[in-house]
C-alpha cells in the first residue's frame, strides 16, 4: 500500500516542485517504486521531468471522473507520473458535487497497491486542488525559503491542515518543514531559519536538520528536463537532497 506524501506551501517559488521530484528520484534510488502526481495547473513538475501533458490525458480528466488512474499514468525512465496542464485550473469550478475533496483519493485507490510511495506536488494556493492532495495524504512536507513571508505563511498552512484533519482526513500529519534555497553565508537566511524553527516548535512540527542550499544546478537540471539527482549527482544541492531523503526515511521508521 503506497504511502502518500504531499509537498505543499501556499507561497510560490519555495521549491515544492523541485522537492517533489528530488524526493521521488531519491526514493527511487533507494529501491522504492514511486508515482508522481502533478496537481498544479502550471504543470511545472510534468514539464521538468519531460512528461507529455499536451496530447495525453492528465489529472484533470481523472478528477472529472472521465478516466481511470491506470489510463493517465505515464511511465518515464525514472518514475511514473500523472501529469497536469493548464486545464486543471478549471477543475476547481467544475468539480462541485458532494465529496469533492475526496476525488483524488478515490481515483488513486486502484493504483495504491502498485507503488511504495505516491508523491504529490501542489500549486501555491490552499484551494480545492491542494485540499484534494491533503485528503489523499499520509504526510505533508513543507518546503520553505528563508523569508519573513514564508515563515508567517506556515501558520496559515498549519491551520488548513488542522481543518483537513478534522473534516476530511484524520491521519494527515506534517512530516516536517524543509528549508530550501538556503544560503548559510547570509545573516538574513540564518535569522529566518531561527524564526522558522521557533514557529515550528510552537506548532510542534519538526524541521529537518538537512537544509537545501541555493544552487544554479537546480535550474540547469530543470531546463534540461533532467532530474536533479541524475543531472549532477555530486553537486552540493544533489547531496543535500540525498541527505534529506535519508533523513525523511529515518523519520518514517
Ligand atoms: N536549491 C535551489 N537553489 C536555487 N534555485 C532553486 C532551488 N530550488 C528551487 N530553485 C528554483 O526556484 C524556482 C522555484 O522552484 P520550484 O518551482 O520548485 O518552486 P515551487 O514552490 O514549486 O513554485 P510554485 O509555487 O510556482 O509551484 C525555480 O526556478 C527553481 O529552479
Ligand atoms: Mg511548483
Short key terms for the protein model shown above:
binds magnesium ion; seven-stranded mixed β-sheet; 7 strands; alpha/beta; binds adenosine-5'-triphosphate; Rossmann fold; 253 residues; 13% strand
Give the SSE order as H and E letters.
EHEHHHEEHHEHEHEHHHH
- Structural class, from secondary structure content? alpha/beta
Gyration radius (Cα, Å) is: 17 Å
Distance between the termini: 16 Å
Number of beta strands = 7
User: How many domains, as an integer?
Assistant: 1
What is the oligomer described by this structure?
A: single chain
CATH superfamily: P-loop containing nucleotide triphosphate hydrolases
Shape: globular
Q: Give the strand line-up of the largest sheet.
A: 3-4-2-5-1-6-7
SS element count, helices: 12
Judging by the overall fold, what is the CATH architecture?
3-Layer(aba) Sandwich
Helix content: 40-55%
Enumerate the distinct ligands: adenosine-5'-triphosphate, magnesium ion
Name of the CATH class: Alpha Beta
Write down the CATH topology. Answer: Rossmann fold
Low-pLDDT residue spans? none
Strand content: 5-15%
For the biggest sheet, the summary is: 7 strands, mixed
Mean pLDDT: 93
Amino acid at each position: 500500500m503506497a504511502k502518500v506524501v504531499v509537498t505543499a506551501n501556499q507561497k510560490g517559488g519555495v521549491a515544492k516542485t523541485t522537492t517533489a521530484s528530488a524526493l521521488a528520484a531519491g526514493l527511487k534510488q533507494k529501491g522504492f517504486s514511486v508515482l508522481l502526481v502533478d496537481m498544479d495547473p502550471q504543470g511545472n513538475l510534468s514539464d521538468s521531468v519531460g512528461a507529455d501533458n499536451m496530447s495525453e490525458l492528465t489529472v484533470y480528466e481523472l478528477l472529472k471522473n472521465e478516466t481511470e488512474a491506470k489510463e493517465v499514468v505515464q511511465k518515464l525512465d525514472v518514475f511514473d507520473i500523472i501529469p497536469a496542464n493548464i486545464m486543471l485550473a478549471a477543475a476547481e469550478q467544475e468539480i462541485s458535487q458532494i465529496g469533492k475533496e475526496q476525488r483524488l483519493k478515490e481515483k488513486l485507490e486502484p493504483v495504491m497497491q502498485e507503488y511504495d510511495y505516491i508523491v504529490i506536488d501542489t500549486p501555491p494556493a490552499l484551494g480545492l486542488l491542494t485540499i484534494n492532495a491533503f485528503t489523499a495524504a499520509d504526510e505533508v512536507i513543507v518546503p520553505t525559503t528563508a523569508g519573513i513571508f514564508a515563515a508567517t505563511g506556515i501558520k496559515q498552512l498549519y491551520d488548513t491542515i488542522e481543518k483537513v484533519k478534522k473534516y476530511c482526513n484524520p491521519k494527515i500529519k506534517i512530516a516536517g518543514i524543509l528549508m530550501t534555497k538556503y544560503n548559510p553565508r547570509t545573516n538574513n537566511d540564518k535569522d529566518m531559519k531561527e524564526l522558522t524553527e521557533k514557529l515550528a516548535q510552537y506548532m510542534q512540527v519538526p524541521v529537518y536538520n538537512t537544509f537545501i542550499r541555493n544552487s544554479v544546478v537546480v535550474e540547469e537540471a530543470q531546463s534540461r528536463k533532467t532530474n536533479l539527482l541524475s543531472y549532477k549527482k555530486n553537486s552540493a544541492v544533489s547531496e543535500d537532497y540525498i541527505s534529506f531523503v535519508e533523513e525523511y526515511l529515518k523519520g518514517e521508521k
